[in-house]
Specification:
Layout (H helix, E strand, L loop, with lengths): L2 E6 L2 E12 L2 E10 L4 H13 L5 E5 L3 E3 L6 H9 L8 E5 L2 H7 L8 E2 L2 H7 L6 E7 L6 H15 L6 H19 L4 E7 L2 E8 L19 H8 L2 E6 L5 E8 L18
Parallel strand pairs: 3-4, 3-5, 4-6, 6-7
Antiparallel strand pairs: 1-2, 2-3, 8-9, 9-10, 10-12, 11-12
Length: 269
């Protein structure tokens, strides 16, 4: 992986990420100095590793890594939280020296920490069986119709027809939003795991979505407001290879809190 450089008042600092893949996990070893100038780049580098959807991201901290202040170690907790729901990749830390273990001892909450790589690898849970499919859509209004057809077929094939209404609604809004505002050909992906269905849409625009006021008079007028209402959680982030991805997690209503069941919008064909 590339070196992560930054410039500050004291000059230029550098931090490099060295990645290897072990038993399906991305093992990342940072070397150099973590400070204000390299914090964001380290965060984005780890997010990029998680975007490849390994079984886990394991960060090895050894003598070649130094941190300007313990507060910057929060970058690892930040990454862990951001990838917890999507793409659902666990992040683990390995302190390979007594000094690193002392530094990791506090301030990171329940984040998994280990003294050796073997221990971390052994702690990675066996990947839950997941089913996925994706389709490339045109930069045209017909993408909404194509998305609905694709989602219905997938839900039928995967025997999750109880999720089809919400999945169709969410996919339509995300795809039409990408065409309308991203002005690019979106890619729609469905990912089923642990009774949860993730609907994710990638487009080429780096502009993050804004939740608009719904306007039921226009086609697709429910907007991201209804995406939020129908989803367990949703979000967006820049995609490491360009553009952005917007995703929403839907879950089986039988496992959800019945008091928080959202109001359904009118059905759409």
């Amino acid at each position: 992986m590339p070196s992560l450089d930054g410039s500050g008042a004291g000059g230029t600092t550098s931090l490099a990420l060295h990645r290897t893949d072990v038993d399906g996990a991305a093992v990342v070893r940072p070397t150099g100095r973590l400070d204000l100038t390299t914090y964001r780049a380290l965060r984005d580098g780890l997010l990029e590793c998680a975007a490849d959807e390994p079984t886990a991201v394991i960060v090895r901290l050894g003598d070649g890594f130094e941190c300007a202040t313990p507060a910057f170690l929060s970058v690892f907790a930040t990454v862990r939280l951001r990838v917890a729901d999507w793409p659902g990749v666990p992040v683990l830390l390995v302190g390979e020296s007594p000094g690193q273990r002392r530094a990791l001892a506090g301030g990171l909450g329940a984040m998994p920490r280990f003294e050796a790589l073997d221990e971390a690898l052994a702690a990675v849970e066996r990947p839950t069986e997941r089913t996925r499919d994706e389709t490339a859509l045109p930069n045209a209004l017909i993408s909404g119709l194509l998305a609905r057809t694709f989602v219905r077929a997938a839900c039928d094939r995967w025997h999750i027809t109880h999720l089809v209404h919400d999945a169709v609604t969410v996919a339509t809004e995300l795809v039409e939003n990408a065409v309308r505002h991203g002005r690019s050909a979106p890619t729609l992906r469905l990912d089923l795991r642990d009774r949860r269905l993730v609907v994710a849409v990638h487009d080429d625009s780096p502009e993050q979505p804004r939740e608009p006021k719904s306007d039921p008079r226009r086609h697709g007028g429910w907007g991201l407001t209804i995406v939020s209402s129908l989803s367990r959680t949703w979000g967006s982030r820049p995609w490491p290879r360009g553009g952005k991805i917007v995703w929403a997690v839907l879950e089986d209503r039988a496992t959800a809190n019945p008091l928080s069941s959202p109001r359904r919008p009118p059905s759409r064909s």
